[in-house]
Every structure is written in structure tokens, then in C-alpha cells.
Amino acid sequence: MSGRIELKYLIDWRQREILLNAFRPYLEAAAHTDERASYPILSLYFDTPSLLFYDEKNDGEMLRSKVRLRGYGVQLEQLAPCFLEIKRKIDSRILKFRKQFDRFDPSLVEPANWRLEDDHQGAQIAAALHRYRLRPVVQVLYRRETYESPFVRSLRLAFDSQLLALHPGQRFEDSLFDDHRHRCLGDTQFIFEVKSDGRLPSWLLEGIRAAELVQRAISKYVLCVDKLGLAQKEIGVYA
Predict the structure, then answer these.
(1) Could you count the other beta carbons within 10 Å of the beta carbon of residue 31?
(2) Contact 165/227 with Cβ under 8 angstroms?
(3) What's 85-132 look like in SS3?
(4) Band of the pLDDT at 195, cuts 50, 70, 90?
(5) pLDDT tens digits, one per residue of 83-107
(6) Which domains does the chain have, with CATH numbers?
(7) Beta-carbon neighbour count of residue 202 at 10 Å?
(8) pTM beyond 0.70, yes or no
């Protein structure tokens, strides 16, 4: 089966420095990043009325899905372009189907307004739309520091920080970084992600061992739903 491998680790600042020092000879900043090799990512996640996708992740289902509208900015109105995505995990492999829009349109927050071409990408998203009663649940905002390797073209390493949970329609403000009701990671915490289409190089594995990392099943979507207490508000299911 095609698809990519994704590994995730919750790390602190010290471990991040260990990793970057170990990996520096093998990495370069990813394209389209700033002077810190980073950029903001904002995703509006969709789920069923009973939060099926949330439950699939929490229950460790081997076959599970996520549906989101993603772009690079701190407000939906800034997203140009933006991408409607369905992400599926099958065993240890990740499959992602993506439809690009030139810029964010407010109508996209309602799944009934999605207009999808009759191609493979659009068909996969349309199938999810027809199968589930999708609705917007939470906005997930964070800063991603991303590196690539000129030696392993399929490899991408990311350090995600400043993770915020926002309600649909809520606008970002700098003050939210100091609001424990919305901030999901501590000041010195990062989610370290390894993404690859194949085998991992020895220098990467050695760095992970040197930083004493333990792989964890981390979902930014689940963290944000929990932070806002959304699962407990589902009448008749989670109450």
C-alpha cells in the first residue's frame, strides 16, 4: 500500500536543540519558510455530530479519518491558497487527498457548499462528505518549523509549537498565547514530527536515540477538542 509514515514525539526545548545539533549536517530549511524555517498553519477541522473522527483517534482505530480546511496564516481570511483535505490512516500508513482553492471563501466553512471536481482527489473528499454529516468543530493554529534533507528527498522534519485551540469563527489575537483556555502546549514544548515515504536514515534514528525520545500517538485535533471541552458538550453522547 502506498502512503507515508508519520512518527510523532512530544519534546522540550532541550531535546529540540539535541536533535537540531545532530541533524544539522543533513538538513536545510524547507521551501517557503521564513528566516526561522517556520510558518503558521491554521486548520478548520470537521467532524460528525457525535465526533466520530475524534473517537476513532482516541480509541486507536487502525482505520481512521480526518477532514480539514488548511492554509498558511493566522486568520481564515488570510488563507491564499487554502486546501480541503481528507487524511486517512490505514495501519501505519497515511493517505492524504487534497483539493486546492486559490483563496479562502467564507462559504467553505459549510460542507454543503463544497464543489468538487470529478477527479480522484475530489471523489475521495466527496465520498466523506456524502457518508458523514460533517460540520465545523474547531480551529487548530500553530507554528511549524520545517526541514528537508537533500540526501533523502521524501523526508520532512517538523517542530510544531504555540498550539492554540479556537472555536469556529473565533479570530486569533496575540493575547490567546497567554490564555490557558486556548493554549495546548507549554512555552518550551514542541510536537516533533517525522514524515517519510520509506526507510529512515541512520543519522535520524541515532539523533532520536540521543535525545531519548519516546514515540507517542499525538493528535493536535484531539488536543484542541479536549482543551475547549467540546467532547463533553455533545448531548446524549458525551454528557
Answers:
(1) 7
(2) yes
(3) EEEEEECCEEEEEEEEECCCCHHHHCHHHCCCCCCHHHHHHHHHHHHC
(4) very high
(5) 999 888 877 688 888 889 999 999 9
(6) 5-233 (3.20.100.30)
(7) 8
(8) yes
- Whether the link from the prior residue into 81 is cis, omega within 30° of 0, is yes
Alpha-carbon gap, residue 192 to 201, rounded angstroms:
17
End-to-end Cα distance, the chain: 39
* Cα Rg, the chain, nearest whole Å: 18
What's the whole-number average pLDDT of the chain?
Answer: 90
CA pseudo-torsion sign 100, 105, 110, 113: negative
pLDDT at residue 201 above 70? yes
Helix (H, G, I), strand (E, B) or coil at 191: strand
| Gap between the Cα atoms of 194 and 196, Å rounded | 7
3-state secondary structure 126-180: HHHHHHCCCEEEEEEEEEEEEEECCCCCCCEEEEEEEEEEECCCCCCCHHHHHCC
> How many helices and strands, by DSSP H and E, does the chain display?
5, 9
- Residue whose entry in the numeric block shows the C-alpha cell 466520530: 52
Main-chain dihedrals φ then ψ at residue 46, nearest 5 degrees: -115, 150
Dist CA 162 CA 164 (whole Å) = 6
Grid cell, residue 110, equals: 459549510
- Report the C-alpha gap between 26 and 2 in whole angstroms: 26
Strand partners, 40: 143
